[in-house]
Design a protein that fits this description.
The protein is mainly α. The protein is built from 11 helices and no strands. Helix 1 packs antiparallel against helix 11. The longest helix has about 35 residues. The chain is elongated and about 80 Å long. It starts with a helix and ends with a helix.
Length: about 200
């Protein structure tokens, strides 16, 4: 049954891919004809499409640091108890778990021997991580000022906004060349789109 479903889904996937390329080639052919004929409507459409939209403003709240530690440390005892109970329960449950239960996560990508090693590292990582959470809970309960100092040292904010700014800039060199030579661009685009649509139709 699964084999039949996979064959059917593969055929549907191929049908969608060919349909997509057929529609794209038809659209490109129309755009090419409009450029070759120097249609004012097509030129205005291309100028309208050549607008840059940046999502930097939308993602700015996500890249702004929000410090919740002062509010959390106002209830440091409740925070510490939550960390201690959660970490202790996790360690208790993981301690007797065989590391082989983590092997299926890695078997599809690594050999069996490598999967065994990674499974053991995964269990150790979870135990060490919960041990760190246990220590954080104890610090929150009994030494909140020391925990605040540690957090003040580790709470450093790193952002990639400056490094990724060139990716949000609009580069219209090719588009300006196309608008400066609409006939050559339109004929070339129409021919390539026609060849693509014919080849897709023959294969389909």
């Amino acid at each position: 049954m699964s084999n039949i479903l996979s064959q059917v889904s593969y055929q549907v996937f191929l049908y969608c891919v060919f349909s997509f390329f057929m529609l794209v080639s038809i659209f490109s052919f129309i755009v090419g004809v409009g450029l070759a004929m120097r249609s004012p409507m097509m030129l205005r459409f291309i100028q309208f499409m050549n607008r840059g939209f940046s999502v930097r403003r939308l993602f700015k709240p996500l890249t702004t640091p929000h410090f919740v530690e002062p509010e959390l440390l106002k209830h440091h005892r409740l925070l510490g108890i939550s960390f201690i109970v959660g970490a202790a329960m996790s360690i208790f449950l993981l301690w007797d778990v065989n590391a082989d239960v983590f092997q299926p996560v890695f078997l599809g990508y690594f050999e069996k021997e490598e999967a065994e090693i990674l499974a053991g590292y995964t269990k150790s990582f979870l135990l060490v991580g919960n041990g760190v959470c246990l220590v954080v809970g104890l610090l929150a309960m009994f030494l909140p000022h020391l925990l605040s100092r540690i957090e003040a040292y580790t709470d450093k904010w790193y952002t990639l906004r400056k490094q990724t700014r060139p990716l949000t800039e609009v580069h219209l060199d090719v588009d300006q060349w196309v608008l400066a030579h609409p006939t050559v661009s339109g004929v070339t685009l129409s021919l390539l789109s026609f060849v693509l649509s014919v080849s897709m139709y023959m294969r389909f």
